[in-house]
Backbone:
C-alpha cells in the first residue's frame, strides 16, 4: 500500500493522554499548530510557521489598530495569491511591524511615525522595506476596507541605497574561497551550486538528487518566481557532487545530520565560511557573479534570465548592458591606440612625412 504524502511538510502528530496535538519542526524552529487538522486556523498557523513565526490560538488585535490591519491583509486574496517564499518574507516583515507598532490606531499614524519605525532598522534597505510595507498596508486599507485618509508612508523620506545592491563576487574572490575550502567540503559544494545554478537560499536549502532529472542536468522550480530552470551541470560542480553520499537525498544538510537547513540559517552559516576565506561575499552575490560571467561571455538577456529563473529580462538587461559597455570601451580604446600608433609612425618618418624625390 502506497503511503500518502504529507500535504503539510514539517507537521507531525503528537498524542498526549489521548489528545491529539500538531507539531511543526524544521531545522531549529519548533512550534505547535492549533486547530483541527486542515482547518483555516490550522492553515494560518502553518503558514506562519513556514515563515518562522509562532502564533497564538486567537487574535487579540483591536479593530482599527495596525495589528488588525495586518491580520486583514494576511487573510486577503492578495496575500494568498503570493508565492510561498514571498508569503514567508512578507509575513516576517509584518510580524516585526505588529510587534513594534501593532497597538496603535493605523488611521492616526503620521509621516513622522513611519520614519521613526524606519529608523529602528539597520541599513537603508531594511528601512525602505518598512516604508514599502506600510504604504502597501495603507493602500490595501483604501482599496478593500473603505479607508479614506492619506497614506503617510508615501511621504516618508526614502533612504539612499547602494545602486548595485549585494556585492558581486569577483573571480579573485571565487578563487580565494575555493583555495580556503577544498574539495569535499560543504562550503565548496554550496558555493559551486549557487554559482553554477543561480539558486537562491530557499532553493539551495532543499535541492537534492530528486532534481537530477537527466544525466548531466539539474532541474528545479525557483521558490520566489515559480519559474522552472533546466541547467547543465558544469564539470566543477559535477566533481563536487560526487562527494555527496549516494544514500543521501539532499545535497546540503546540517553538520552530522540529514536534516535540511532553515533558509536563514543556511545564509548565516555561509557568511561565516566567507569570513573564514576573507571574502566579502553572500549567496545572493554568487547569483550575480554567475549572471556576470554569462554576460561577459556574450550570453543573451533571455539566456541570463533562464539562469536566474526570472519571469522577464529586466534584471538580465542590467548585466548585458554592463558587459556591452565594457566591450565597447575596449573596442574604443583599441581604435584610439591604433590612431596613436599611426601618428607615432608618421612622426618617426625621417622625411617629415614628405615623399622621396
Residues:
Amino acid at each position: 500500500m502506497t503511503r500518502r504524502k504529507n500535504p503539510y511538510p514539517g507537521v507531525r502528530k503528537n498524542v498526549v493522554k489521548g489528545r491529539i496535538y500538531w507539531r511543526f519542526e524544521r531545522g531549529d524552529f519548533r512550534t505547535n499548530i492549533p486547530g483541527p487538522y486542515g482547518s483555516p486556523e490550522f492553515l494560518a498557523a502553518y503558514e506562519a510557521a513556514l515563515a518562522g513565526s509562532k502564533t497564538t490560538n486567537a487574535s487579540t488585535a483591536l479593530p482599527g489598530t495596525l495589528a488588525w490591519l495586518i491580520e486583514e491583509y494576511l487573510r486577503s486574496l492578495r496575500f494568498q495569491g503570493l508565492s510561498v517564499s514571498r508569503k514567508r518574507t512578507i509575513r516576517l516583515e509584518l510580524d516585526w511591524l505588529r510587534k513594534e507598532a501593532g497597538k496603535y490606531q493605523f488611521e492616526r499614524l503620521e509621516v513622522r511615525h513611519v520614519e521613526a519605525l524606519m529608523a529602528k532598522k539597520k541599513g537603508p534597505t531594511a528601512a525602505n522595506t518598512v516604508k514599502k510595507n506600510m504604504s502597501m498596508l495603507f493602500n490595501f486599507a483604501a482599496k478593500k476596507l473603505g479607508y479614506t485618509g492619506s497614506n503617510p508612508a508615501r511621504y516618508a523620506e526614502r533612504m539612499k541605497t547602494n545602486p548595485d545592491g549585494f556585492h558581486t563576487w569577483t573571480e579573485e574572490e571565487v578563487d580565494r574561497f575555493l583555495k580556503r575550502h577544498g574539495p569535499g567540503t560543504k562550503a565548496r559544494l554550496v558555493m559551486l551550486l549557487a554559482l553554477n545554478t543561480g539558486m537562491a537560499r530557499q532553493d539551495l536549502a532543499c535541492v537534492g538528487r530528486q532534481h537530477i532529472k537527466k544525466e548531466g542536468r539539474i532541474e528545479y522550480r525557483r521558490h520566489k518566481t515559480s519559474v522552472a530552470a533546466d541547467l547543465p551541470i558544469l564539470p566543477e560542480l559535477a566533481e563536487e557532487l560526487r562527494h555527496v553520499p549516494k544514500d543521501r537525498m539532499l545535497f546540503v544538510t546540517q553538520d552530522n545530520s540529514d536534516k535540511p537547513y532553515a533558509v536563514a540559517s543556511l545564509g548565516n552559516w555561509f557568511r561565516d565560511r566567507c569570513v573564514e576565506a576573507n571574502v566579502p561575499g553572500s549567496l545572493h552575490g554568487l547569483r550575480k557573479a554567475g549572471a556576470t560571467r554569462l554576460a561577459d561571455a556574450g550570453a543573451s538577456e533571455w539566456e541570463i534570465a533562464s539562469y536566474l529563473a526570472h519571469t522577464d529580462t529586466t534584471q538580465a538587461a542590467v548585466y548585458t548592458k554592463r558587459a556591452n559597455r565594457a566591450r565597447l570601451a575596449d573596442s574604443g580604446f583599441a581604435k584610439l591606440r591604433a590612431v596613436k600608433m599611426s601618428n607615432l609612425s608618421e612622426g618617426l618618418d625621417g622625411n617629415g612625412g614628405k615623399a622621396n624625390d
Remarks:
- The chain has two domains: 11-155, 171-317.
- The chain is about 50% helix and 10% strand.
- The first strand starts at residue 11 and ends at 16.
